[in-house]
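Hi P.,

Sorry for the delay on this. The queue was packed all week, but I finally got your sequence through. Input first:
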Amino acid sequence: MSNFVAELRDVHKSFGNTVVFCDVNFAIAERDTVSICGDSGSGKTTLINVLGLLEPPTSGRVIWESCEVTYTKMSRVARLRSKIFGYIFQQCNLIPELNVVENLMLPKRIAGEAGEADVDFVRQLLRQTQLTKFENRAVSTLSGGERQKVAAIRAMVNRPRVIVADEPTGNLDEKSANLVMDAIVGLCNSCGSALLLITHNKRFAEKMQTSYVLTNMRLRRME
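Then the structure:
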């Protein structure tokens, strides 16, 4: 049995007559670090949306944990997605009126699963990222880099098998971007999650074990 967590096989995606990408074959395995680069508008975000079944492929197969997934049981897909994928976006999307711990516990509270073990886990990750002193601070008082670290921790709360980081440092200065990227990699290592990084930053991309570029509607592995 494959140790791939998520795969695309011969995937094609179009919007009407506009082809976004075609013949994409891609897989990410346990504890992998993978980057996908490409110009703005090349289809990178659409590709990860298809991988996460947030939107359907036009043709081809999406496979999670060796099983092909379909749109026939979307409630089950949503539950499974929350266990397989954790997302970090360019915008941190935190609730400014809540403090750091409240933001981090919100996904668990919404699901009715919050417990002391979850609070302990969150505090462990805050220590790892040197944010413990901010745990009772409103996120509106944090710097951009600090907020993005909090967003990275939030993506870990469900202990997902893959962290999908879509331009996570796009709004940050170079120093903050380096700190946030180091935090994301460190969190993935300590939690045993694979990392799929979507980025324009070639330096960050080259730090991943495997790098791809999406260009001219094709996904190409970079040697």
